[in-house]
Amino acid sequence: MDIAEPGLQQEVCTARSQAHFLVTHLDQLIAYCDRSPIGKRLPAALYVHVSALSALEQPLQDYEKLARQHLKKLDGATLVKFSTDQPRVSYLSYPHFDTDAHPALQWSVQVDLATSQVGVRNYNGTDNPPILHRKETFVTSDYPLYQPFAQLTRQEEALGLLNQSREIGTRDAWLKRLSDCAIEIHGHVLACPIDRTTVISQPKIDRHKAALVRTELSKPVRVALEAGLFTPQTTFFDYGCGHGGDVEQMGDRGFNSSGWDPYYRPDAACITADIVNLGYIINVIEDPAERREALLKAWALTGRVLIVAAQVLIEDRVRGMMTYSDGVITRRNTFQKNYSQEELKSYIDQVLGVDAIPVALGIYLVFRDEVQAQSFRASRFRSRATTPRVKASVKRFEQYKEMLVPLMAFFTERGRLPIEEELQEFTELQAEFGTLRRAFQVVLQATEAREWDAISEKRRQDLLVYLALSHFETRPKLRHLAPIVQHDIKALFGNYQQACTAADLMLLSLGNLEVMAERCKSSAIGKKLSNSLWVHVSALDALDPLLRLYEGCASRTIGRPEEATVVKFHTSKPKITYLFYPDFDRDPHPCLRTSMQIDLQDLHVSYRDYDPEDNPPVLHQKELLVQSDYPLYEKFAKLSRQEADWGLLDDLGRVRDRRGWQKCLEEYCAELKGHRVVWRKDADPYRVKLLRSLIRAKQTNRINN
Fold first, then answer.
1. Do β-strands 273-279 and 566-570 pair in parallel, antiparallel, or remain unpaired?
2. Among residues 639, 637, 622, which one has the least CA distance to residue 676?
3. Of 563, 656, 662, whose CA–CA distance to 618 is shortest?
4. Over the stretch 223-254, which tens digit does the pLDDT of each residue have?
5. Pick from 82, 109, 106: nearest CA to 94
6. Could you read off the pLDDT of 424-473 as tens digits, one per residue?
7. What DSSP string runs through 268-298?
8. CA nearest neighbour of 545 among 303, 382, 436, 340
9. pTM, whole model, 2 decimals?
10. DSSP summary character for residue 422
11. The dihedral of CA 590, 591, 593, 595: what is its sign?
């Protein structure tokens, strides 16, 4: 019986008893809570603001209406709590939810739907009531005060105020945390206490202390190097080079490299260069006017590409910071302006009058030449393709193989035949075969023609994704595209207008969540859940083009985090979430460390850290997230088959977090040795015997089926 179809309330009425129904369907209700994009999910409950109830899935709305029927009157409720360990719904009153940054709980009403009992608890006489944090998580993004709530949370996260959340659940504990950190909250903004008896003076910031001593390339320069922006003759200049680590590293690689720093290299000349790096500079300058000037000066020195990087997340969340200007002063007396990713792009674009290209979290590239910028954008959406293998022995192919291999490589790269200036062997091939088409006919005789057709279609889809995403800004004119891309469009689409029309039609499909849900459901790649598709980053370019475009909407503007392991495609809401599992390959069931969710409607970014010492979510069935050619695919798949035979994956809901998984292993007398399940040495022999029998039965059934 699927509770989602006729509605939960109707089904309860036809059940023998409400209590029996709720108990037997609690797992399904938990699943709705787990996948709800609305509300704050804690280990044993989902909390939702009353204004957001109508945004929940219908079964949860029906569930809440059942609870409300047990109450004669309910005025003043702020939050609704859906318990996931028992069939209970609670109503919580926070009278000052909108006005108080961390409102206190005044009363709660609990409805036990299994027994129909109602319990009331009043906190008015409590000196130390529970309080709320992260208020934006309870409401929808269109709630009038969503942005102030979210901004406050980002500030508190940046200063480490929300670390060890169990320690700050009450008003006294929270006030102590603020006092220890010398922080006050004015409205929904953090501030440092001011001693009004002292004269307020501008602090002297030790900017030079923010410079790091590097023994390897900084991330921004490394990203540019890996992107192929440095050619043998490229010159490099580091504006604000600090100790000069990047200058030395690039010099050691054979590039003409120099740098300037106001503290460490004040006498060095500021010279123009092909590539200029402004790495983590604008976030340590406390004066907004001087910050802007630094960006403009670095751009003035740029011949081809400017690299701009700024800190968007505080990785070292230590205490001992105070607010100043639009950032914080650290305990080392350095300044930090911590941008949100969307804020950083907007700042660069506004100051320089450009369309900066995100390449990683907090790292943007700005090109002088529009043709080069568009070529780089197009290259980022090129999927992998393998040259088809030779399957037939063709005498003429073997005779001219050395001459034909470059032609095959070009077709694999571009999905079409080259023109004269694009292939060094063009004249030689033409002289021998008459035309390139005749030369390629020899290739087709020795290979599978359909594999070459698939490559052409793949390159066609690559261009569609690129052109569709270019629609978000000003789509480039044909003349602003590199000649090789212009030839691609002519060969694969006929003309630019037809290519753009096809791309726009593809883009229109993104607005239809039903279409996106169907593409996710029918995807041959990825792990499918009720409201999402999970895909390992290595498999992204093999996805359906519309799904690639869906993810591209996020990565084009915000930038895909370099450490991202898995991409979650939401199907009930236009959202993309990047998930970081640091031990994906090594750990059979890796724990989630961080997530970054991007709302594709307003490009709002929200981050979440999962404490490894707490109870983070864990990942199962890793082979479903990768392609079959992933190096560890068979290892992952073998483990999942073994776990399925043991019954460990029978109820994925109860093993979604580390505690639940560990409890399940204990119940089945199992433990993991690498990617292998083994019997616990201290397990009860009789229980092991019973379990072995069940496992053999499952294995036999799987083999027979």
1. unpaired
2. 639
3. 656
4. 899 889 999 999 999 999 988 999 999 999 99
5. 106
6. 889 999 999 999 999 999 999 999 999 999 999 989 988 988 888 787 66
7. S----EEEEEEES-TTS---HHHHHHHHHHH
8. 382
9. 0.54
10. G
11. positive
